[in-house]
Amino acid sequence: MSSDAKTNPITPAGLAALKARYDHLLGTERPAIVEIVSWAAGNGDRSENGDYLYGRKRMREIDRELAHLARRMKAAKVIDPAAQVDRSRVWFGATVTLADEDDNQRQITLVGDDEQDASADRIGWSAPIARALRGAGVGDLRTVRLPGGEKEWEVVAITYPERVPA
């Protein structure tokens, strides 16, 4: 169940977060802005009406984000990391413990690009370190090309979320 680079893999939780953002924008934020714009438009001269101008600008931003989210959800391929069969290798959804040359350890989880969060050590599937780690097993060395030069990491441990019985 490895994932190739052409798909847009995402975890079930990641897709749920995209849907929640889409629903919030469509059901809450956009109607509120439409109401402000309608009210402001009724106040006469629109060329110097800050509420109207800001509202129109914000509505365009929301519409762009809605379109982006819709495209990302349509292209998404949900992959449940808990269902991974080959748990001895690094595939989508793996949590990987790495050690560098100085034995400094770091733990990262490989997630979809739409759910990456470096501050939470959630690395996007197409990031350089994720590409370098694909298919690696415990004890394997992987070299990652970073802006500051190359860095070598050893895979110390690989874990996946536990399967939940149906």
Automatic annotation (TrEMBL):
<dbReference type="InterPro" id="IPR001437">
    <property type="entry name" value="Tscrpt_elong_fac_GreA/B_C"/>
</dbReference>
<feature type="domain" description="Transcription elongation factor GreA/GreB N-terminal">
    <location>
        <begin position="8"/>
        <end position="78"/>
    </location>
</feature>
<dbReference type="Pfam" id="PF03449">
    <property type="entry name" value="GreA_GreB_N"/>
</dbReference>
<feature type="domain" description="Transcription elongation factor GreA/GreB C-terminal">
    <location>
        <begin position="88"/>
        <end position="160"/>
    </location>
</feature>
<dbReference type="InterPro" id="IPR023459">
    <property type="entry name" value="Tscrpt_elong_fac_GreA/B_fam"/>
</dbReference>
<keyword id="KW-0251">Elongation factor</keyword>
<dbReference type="Pfam" id="PF01272">
    <property type="entry name" value="GreA_GreB"/>
</dbReference>
<dbReference type="InterPro" id="IPR028624">
    <property type="entry name" value="Tscrpt_elong_fac_GreA/B"/>
</dbReference>
<keyword id="KW-0805">Transcription regulation</keyword>
<dbReference type="InterPro" id="IPR036953">
    <property type="entry name" value="GreA/GreB_C_sf"/>
</dbReference>
<keyword id="KW-0804">Transcription</keyword>
<dbReference type="GO" id="GO:0003746">
    <property type="term" value="F:translation elongation factor activity"/>
</dbReference>
<keyword id="KW-0238">DNA-binding</keyword>
<dbReference type="InterPro" id="IPR022691">
    <property type="entry name" value="Tscrpt_elong_fac_GreA/B_N"/>
</dbReference>
<keyword id="KW-0648">Protein biosynthesis</keyword>
<protein>
    <recommendedName>
        <fullName>Transcription elongation factor GreB</fullName>
    </recommendedName>
</protein>
<dbReference type="InterPro" id="IPR036805">
    <property type="entry name" value="Tscrpt_elong_fac_GreA/B_N_sf"/>
</dbReference>
<comment type="similarity">
    <text>Belongs to the GreA/GreB family. GreB subfamily.</text>
</comment>
<dbReference type="InterPro" id="IPR006358">
    <property type="entry name" value="Tscrpt_elong_fac_GreB"/>
</dbReference>
<comment type="function">
    <text>Necessary for efficient RNA polymerase transcription elongation past template-encoded arresting sites. The arresting sites in DNA have the property of trapping a certain fraction of elongating RNA polymerases that pass through, resulting in locked ternary complexes. Cleavage of the nascent transcript by cleavage factors such as GreA or GreB allows the resumption of elongation from the new 3'terminus. GreB releases sequences of up to 9 nucleotides in length.</text>
</comment>
